[in-house]
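Our platform keeps sequence and structure together, in a single record for each protein. Such a record has a labelled line for the sequence and another for the backbone structure tokens. This encoding replaces a full spatial description with a residue-level series of whole-number codes. Below, we set out a record of this kind in full and without editing:
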Amino acid sequence: MSKPRPRTLADYGPIAFPAAMLGAFFVVPFGIMVAVSFFHRVPGGFYEPAFEFANYERFLTAFFGGVLGFSLGLSALVAAVAVVLAFPFTYLLVRRPRRVQVIWLVFLLSVLSLSEVIIGFAWSTLFSRTAGITNLLVAIGVMDQAVALSPSFEAVLTGMVYQAFPYTVLVLYPALSRLDPTLVEAARTLGASPFRAFFTVIVPGLRNTIVSTLIMVFVFALGSYLLPQLLGRPQQWTLSVLITDQAIYQSNMPFAAAMAVFLVLVSLGLVGLSLVLGRREHAQ
């Protein structure tokens, strides 16, 4: 049975409050940010109302292109590594008893509840020379002396994958939990090994789910702000860090607003693409 279409204003009552909150805390601030992105910057850290494209023209500079390329590449790599690690983990998790699944899900939710500050400082301690994991390697004779593993690109990647992993598992869990187990049993009956059945039956059957998860994790990683600063060098700073630097330290609010508008539009576009893929898989 299909629900009847709303015909009067009273029928829209249940969504009035969410719509008001969305308008007050997203549409209005985003509109102000778009307007500021066209303002003219006045020497001395001020800006005045105008309508110019100078802030968006700076997107064509080599510096911005480098930061944007690194941010997109890092987010894509984080998404790929997180999905590669989380997909088989989630597949094995849904095959465990319900009690085991609940314990793991509670653990993942507790990790997801940690702030980015705590995660960043925890990993910076583990990667430090004085109290890091290299001291353990020295103690067991693998290394001669302790070294610092951060700041580095590898440290940034590790911290961001750790932060995105619980989120990735929770996104994949519903689709994998609804997977028909008889498909794998049929593949095994026909002589496929567990490894081959996983890659020839499970992965192709959830192709749209995997792509949607990659997009969602990519958007999640694209907004990372503290981890690149705590675990990386200035060369590993993302677009989010550059936005804060331009707004606070460089006092260039119009250019920061233009970059923020670009980041929001990219994120909304990718989220919309993931929703389209999700609906297509549900229709199939």
Q: What stands out?
A: Residues 91 and 176 are 6 Å apart (CA to CA). The beta strands are 40-42, 46-48. The mean pLDDT is 83. The domain at 28-283 is CATH 1.10.3720.10 (MetI-like fold).
